[in-house]
């Protein structure tokens, strides 16, 4: 399960001055993520970080900015099903769908999974 830490100050309504940045990395063999929100019009700043796969709203913003990598699941050349379940915590139904259709990962997740696969 993902580890998460969050620091923040009350938020204004989103405006043109609001900045949102999200990124992923692999540090010490572990998938990590960070998100930063700030606004120069109002005294607002928030940082959020954790280990594992980011929360869905942060992951979707990363996918929108960086695109996705389609990964085959199972079989020769595919991401091992056990690894996919461990990293993403997928249900059996989600694994069955991923096995049939592949899995959409961020570029950093794709590199991490490729290195972690035996």
Explained architecture:
- Helix content is 33%, strand content 34%.
- It contains 4 helices and 6 strands, in the order ββββαβααβα.
- The strands form 2 sheets. The protein has a 4-stranded antiparallel sheet. Strands 5-6 form a two-stranded antiparallel sheet.
- The longest helix has 11 residues, at 56-66.
SSE map:
Blueprint: E1 3-8, E2 18-27, E3 30-39, E4 44-51, H1 56-66, E5 69-71, H2 81-88, H3 92-101, E6 103-105, H4 107-116
Antiparallel strand pairs: 1-4, 2-3, 3-4, 5-6
Quickly list its features:
alpha+beta; 33% helix
Question: TL;DR of this structure?
Answer:
This protein has helices spanning 56-66, 81-88, 92-101, 107-116; strands at residues 3-8, 18-27, 30-39, 44-51, 69-71, 103-105.
Strand content: 25-35%
The total count of helices amounts to 4
Strand order, biggest sheet?
1-4-3-2
Secondary-structure-derived class: alpha+beta
Whole-number mean pLDDT: 86
Shape: elongated
Distance between the termini: 21 Å
Q: Supply Rg.
A: 16 Å
Instruction: List the secondary-structure elements in sequence, H or E.
Output: EEEEHEHHEH
Number of strands: 6
Approximate helicity band: 25-40%
Largest sheet: 4 strands, antiparallel
> Could you name the ranges where pLDDT drops below 50 across 5 or more consecutive residues?
none
